[in-house]
Amino acid sequence: MLRQLTIEERRFPLAAPFRISRGVKHNADVVTVAMRQGDKCGRGEGVPYARYGESAASVIEQMEQLRPQLAAGMGRDELLARLPAGAARNALDAALWDLESQLSGVPVWQRLARPQRAALVTALTIGIDTPERMGAAAARIAGAGLIKIKVDADDPAARIDAVRRAAPHDRLIVDPNESWTIELLREMQQPLARAGVDLLEQPLPANADDALLDYSGSIPICADEACHETRDLPRMRGRYQAINIKLDKTGGLTEAWHLLRAARREGFKVMVGCMVCSSLGIAPALELAREAAFVDLDGPFWLQHDHPDGVQLQGGSLLPPSSGFWGG
């Protein structure tokens, strides 16, 4: 047997509840994989997401079905053909990138012909709460550079205004997580412009975004749940001006790299985002983030405890993990 695989479910308690329009998270539940070949071991992490019909059990089952082929030496291209986009493929793809870099001695950033990792400004997220509490949260991070505001259909203007007053100089992303209607979107044009919002992320349900074909607003709209893989891009035209690339949606860095290149060729702005996860889930996304107009990789900073040698936050700057953490 060429490789040995260890697949585990892990739970990271959050430092504070994380509330979005679909509910509240108290833990980050992830599935990790360690792929050992000789004295080298590649690691990856995926976040099962109920919005896409995933659970830890279903993700582990997908991985286990390919255990013999992975142990025998399956590569990333075959993995791409054998598993659909999602958390399972993401974790395995990351482990393969990591393992390949260790075996070759060539780090991922160099294999992708990218500059070596450096600090990046990341969005810091404010979950849904009362306007007063959201304003207080914004005051604590004012000056970080980029703030993401989670809202729903319940008086979003008041929440956005509260954040803007508390953080008058930061760039803003507003994320309703599919909770608005086209009528509310039209009503929100003025409040969004008044607050100087830079980007509006997935305001309408992905299955109801045909309404965007007849919508014209001053704030660019970013596809999140509506765009997973490169093959989704044609449908984004006329609806969205940006796309949010998340590795758990694309099913890993391999497909995410294809999507990034295709999106830029077609004139979409690019955001690189994440689920609430540990630094092991963030490290591969850093390989994309240097080419993104917006970076939203603050997932690990919601955890009570992350990997000690993982990413760090300095003001609003995301510092890469320690050398050797992932990807060479």
UniProtKB/TrEMBL annotation:
The keyword Magnesium applies. Mg(2+) binds at residues 175, 201, 224. Its EC number is 5.1.1.-. It holds the Pfam family MR_MLE_N. One of its GO terms (biological process) is amino acid catabolic process. Its cofactor is Mg(2+). The keyword Ubl conjugation does not apply. The active site is at 150 (proton acceptor), 246 (proton acceptor). Binds 1 Mg(2+) ion per subunit. Residues 131-222 form the Mandelate racemase/muconate lactonizing enzyme C-terminal domain. SMART domains: MR_MLE (SM00922). One of its GO terms (molecular function) is metal ion binding. InterPro entries: DgoD-like, Dipeptide_epimerase, Enolase-like_C_sf, Enolase-like_N, Enolase_C-like, Mandel_Rmase/mucon_lact_enz_CS, Mandelate_racemase_C, Mandelate_racemase_N_dom. Keywords: Isomerase, Magnesium, Metal-binding. Transmembrane segments: none annotated. NCBIfam families: racemase_DgcA. Belongs to the mandelate racemase/muconate lactonizing enzyme family. This is Dipeptide epimerase.
